[in-house]
Design goal:
- The protein is an all-beta fold and 79 residues long.
- It has one domain.
- It is built from no helices and 4 strands.
- The strands form 2 sheets. It has a two-stranded antiparallel sheet. A two-stranded antiparallel ribbon has the order 2-3.
- The two termini are 18 Å apart.
- The mean pLDDT is 97.
- Keywords: 2Fe-2S, Iron, Iron-sulfur, Metal-binding.
């Protein structure tokens, strides 16, 4: 698999907790979007670990084509 599956064309808005680690799905196959559920097995993709330095809302990439993983950078506007 060379290109990730587009889970949605727009970000996932998630309320995160300070100090907690999150594993963003990079392949687009997870049923637990925007987070990894292990569906990447055999695809060559790996989840991206991110640790929240503060509680609040974050915009996780849904199209899986961001240049700033795990966050949305607006790339979905060009897909």
């Amino acid at each position: 698999m060379t290109d990730p599956v587009i889970a949605q064309k727009g970000p996932y808005v998630v309320t995160v907790e300070e100090g907690k680690s999150y594993f963003w799905c990079a392949c687009g196959r997870s049923k637990d979007q925007p987070f990894c559920d292990g569906s990447h097995t055999g695809t060559g993709f790996l989840p991206v670990r991110w640790k929240a330095d503060a509680s609040g809302e974050q915009y996780f990439c849904g199209c899986k084509h961001t240049r700033t993983p795990p966050f949305c950078d607006g790339t979905h506007e060009t897909l």
